[in-house]
Amino acid sequence: MKGMTMSTGNGVMVGGAMMTPDKDIVDNAVNSTDHTTLVAAVKAAGLVETMKGAGPFTVFAPTNAAFEKLPAGTVNTLVMPENKQKLTTILTYHVVPGRLMAADLRDGQTLTTVEGETLMVHRNGNAVMLHDAKGGMANVTIADVVSKNGVTHVVDTVLMPTR
């Protein structure tokens, strides 16, 4: 895919900030201006400590623009305390146990998320796409953002589980 950025061993730029392998997933994400909605959602769901854990985790991280594609008011509703469980379900659907680099993702592969449902991988050359449980599709726009407790792949769409 044109525009897909691969990382070097030294880090990769995401949202105007250098993501480096010596920081954990959360500490890298908080510096990205493209992931302020995701960081706020992780905080609202109470998942900060989990995502700072040993892992390793593979995170498919939706950008602010991905969250903006949701129906108007969705994000504001999800971050309300009474919707914490639904928010947690959606966020953990973006996390897969283990450290899966883009090169490890095969066309037709099924990934079981921390949430319990699956994501389907589709590849076309270097382009990686994910299909969610509701038929939605997300493109990996920046792959292989390595953190000390896993790897993040930036996606352009919020993935939705069935529940």
UniProtKB/TrEMBL annotation:
Domain FAS1 stretches: 22-159
Cited PANTHER family: FI19380P1, PERIOSTIN-RELATED
A Pfam family assignment: Fasciclin
InterPro entries assigned: Adhesion/Biosynth-related (IPR050904), FAS1_dom_sf (IPR036378), FAS1_domain (IPR000782)
Taxonomic placement: Bacteria, Pseudomonadati, Bacteroidota, Cytophagia, Cytophagales
Name recorded for this polypeptide: Fasciclin domain-containing protein
